[in-house]
Design a protein that fits this description.
Layout (H helix, E strand, L loop, with lengths): L5 E6 L5 H9 L4 E7 L2 H5 L7 E4 L5 H8 L4 E4 L3 H11 L6 E3 L11 H7 L2 E3 L8 H11 L3 E13 L14 H9 L2 E5 L2 E5 L6 E5 L3 E7 L6 H4 L2 E10 L3 H10 L8 E3 L2 E3 L1 H13 L7 E13 L2 E12 L8 H18 L7 E3 L1 H4 L3 H13 L4 E5 L1
Parallel strand pairs: 1-2, 1-4, 2-3, 4-5, 5-6, 6-17, 7-12
Antiparallel strand pairs: 7-15, 8-9, 10-11, 11-12, 13-14, 15-16, 16-18
Helix pairs in contact: 1-11, 3-4, 11-13
């Protein structure tokens, strides 16, 4: 008799959801289902062995029914509904990997997950995700962290005007990244700065010069890692910041309605409708993912520096975008970590927490290497 397969449900069939489903469906390890409200997105799975569920996942009742037939979950819905979905999943008593980008603090659900017995690893994409895992890993090797800086960006390989940008994940989450105030650490204390602020130019091998700006990517790191200075900066091609600031300062992202010809219009919603088709990555359009993590500190009163670099490109053979691969495979490898029983503690766990375990870090890095995603490490 064949061994029973673990059943995995992925919430969200977008750019990242699809590669995750295909990765998990390979081999005989999992039986995979995927849920989304879009019939068109689910239609791309007709030639696969993946079960599709068309459902409004913002409806907790719908989600609760879906969870009853599955053993593991990956939460990959857009940020505006990510936390509410996670709240439902954390009550199932089953393992969860979460990559939804929402403003709420997932640690607020820690007791809920502990009560149900759910082991939940949150923010487990590329950034947040691997950025936090490797920062936590480096920090665990030091007596005191002086600096931890993360620089990360997903970009189109070919620059085209006017934006020189394509959304390699949910475009609404991109706009949120430009608007949400950034939390940083300075002199050991959390400070709030405007997104897009403190721009600087940086050079990267294989890419050239990029501009970096403050964004709210540290998330849980501001409270889980003690450091004198910490920041996460998003990377874009030079000039992109000024274009976004023009829209932001001009009111194009405002959420207060304006009236035009007797009709109420929300500027942000209109802007999104205009931008999203222009920002959407089309099949075959190539992208790159660039990340540099620098963690500096003291070990036995000696300066120690850990540096991790990622440069990844669109996979022409599979047709899967780089950001989808680097984000999605971090989640699927982590799900395999949970399914193999290598980590099972109930509660909400952030990547930097599990990153303190050497075996977990090496398991995830090896799983990514097997999927041709390579992080280069230097210790100085």
């Amino acid at each position: 008799m064949a061994a029973k397969k673990n059943k995995v449900l992925i919430l969200g069939a977008g750019l990242v959801g699809r590669p995750m489903a295909l990765d998990l469906a390979r081999g005989n390890e999992f039986s995979v289902g995927i849920a989304d409200i879009s019939e068109d997105r689910l239609g791309t799975f007709t030639e696969t062995n993946i079960t599709t569920h068309q459902a409004d996942l913002s409806n907790s009742g719908n989600l609760e029914i879906l969870t009853q037939g599955y053993d593991f979950f990956i939460n990959a819905v857009p940020g505006h509904m990510g936390f509410s979905c996670l709240k439902v999943l954390a009550q199932t008593g089953k393992p969860v990997v979460d990559i939804a980008f929402y403003p709420e603090n997932p640690l607020d659900l820690d007791q809920l997950a502990k009560n149900s017995g759910s082991c939940v690893v949150c923010d487990m994409g590329v950034a947040p995700g691997m950025s936090h895992l490797l920062t936590g890993y480096a920090a665990s090797k030091m007596d005191h962290v002086t600096k931890a800086f993360i620089y990360v960006g997903g970009l189109p390989k070919i620059r085209t005007q006017p934006w020189e940008y394509k959304a390699v994940f949910s475009p609404s989450d991109v706009i949120e990244e430009y608007l949400r105030p950034a939390r940083l650490v300075e002199h050991g204390k959390t400070v709030i700065k405007e997104a897009l602020s403190e721009a600087e130019l940086m050079d990267f091998d294989g890419v050239g010069t990029l501009e970096a700006f403050n964004s709210d990517g540290l998330r849980s790191l501001v409270s889980t890692i003690k450091a004198d200075y910490m920041a996460e900066k998003t990377l874009r091609y030079p000039g992109h910041i000024d274009k976004i600031k023009f829209l932001k300062q001009g009111g194009f992202f405002d959420e207060n309605p304006v009236f035009l010809n007797g009709r109420s219009i929300v500027p942000r919603e209109l802007t999104q409708q205009i931008l999203f088709p222009q920002w959407s990555l089309k099949p075959g359009e190539e992208d790159i993912t660039v990340m540099k993590i620098e963690v500096e500190g003291l070990l036995d009163n000696h300066k120690t520096v850990y540096e991790f670099n990622l440069f990844d490109q669109y996979d022409r053979e599979s047709g899967i975008h780089s950001m989808a691969r680097t984000t999605g495979y971090a989640a699927t490898v982590t799900l395999r970590l949970l399914s193999n029983g290598y980590f099972s503690s109930p509660g909400i766990h952030m990547p930097e927490m599990i990153g303190q375990n050497e075996k977990i870090v090496q398991f995830i890095l090896q799983g990514l290497r097997e999927r041709n995603v390579h992080y280069l490490q230097r210790c100085l």
